[in-house]
Amino acid sequence: MVTVRDVARESGVSISTVSRALAEPERVAPETRDRVVAVANRLGYRPNRAASGLRAGRTGALGLVVPDLENPYFASVTKGVQARARQTGHAVFVVDAGEDPALETELVTGLRSQTDGLVLCSPRAAEADLDAARDAPVVLVNLRHDGVPSVSSDDAHGVVLAVEHLRALGHRRVAYVGGPDRSWSDARRRAGLDAVRERYPDVETVTVGSFRPRVEGGRAAADLVVASGATAVLAYNDLVALGLVARLRERGVDVPRDLSVVGFDDTFVATLASPPLTTVRTDLAHLGARAVDRLVAALGTRRPNAAPTVGAPPEASADDVLPVELVVRDSTTLAPTGQPVPPR
User: Which residue has the higher pLDDT, 79 or 341?
Assistant: First the structure.
């Protein structure tokens, strides 16, 4: 096995210089760095990153906690996290809390000792989770908390885009099927409804409650949507929209002729639906990648013997808000009156 000592001897430099050239190349003169790298490649040397991590007090792993991996939203974010982590030389431990806040906090506690930092995606027990990870760098996805870096999508604007689209099609009564009570994203969507009411007083919006963010949640809400008299409905996410469409079909309500349906997130199921869903799109893989960028930046700026802190340093504490866009497919059409209503 080729060792760092072999590379040092062939390069004519010290072992510590080889280590710096391979791990922190900016700290080595370019000519020396290039010579070391060339020798390492020629000899087939591969650094022992586990040992290096132990010497630096690092595990080389990041932790990701999600509420439900069966939900394609979190699966897509997870893929983004894993892809970017590989690019930065980190492994990822992924745990699924099963929408259970108590279990979520327990998992955070367990991950803390096995990882260098944590990404908490849509945490249901935010305060308890942050307390459990109080000595670790943390990045939040789809939640904001003072002093903790976060990455989220512009959900409120997404609701405005969806309602503007429906309004242009002549819809003047729009229902919203909400998500879980603990969901920060649901609160942002409802903030978007408030903005719609101020901007478009000719559009009446009706909320029909809070439901599980899964297909069965949409099925449970469908009858209430029909009873509301709305001609269009915005669902908390694409899975809820699928449940709505399935139950509406059982009732003989045609989508989109009788009722237009809009999803949220543009997960892969949106294109598999019948009809394909109009939905608000977020680049979920990029969302996960940005969370890793924030976490790695926090790790890179921490001194080995620094006092424990939660989150990133002040210069990296700003929230990242990623843009959204509306993807129009076949689940929305003109209001049942048949013609679009001209805007006032």
Answer: 79
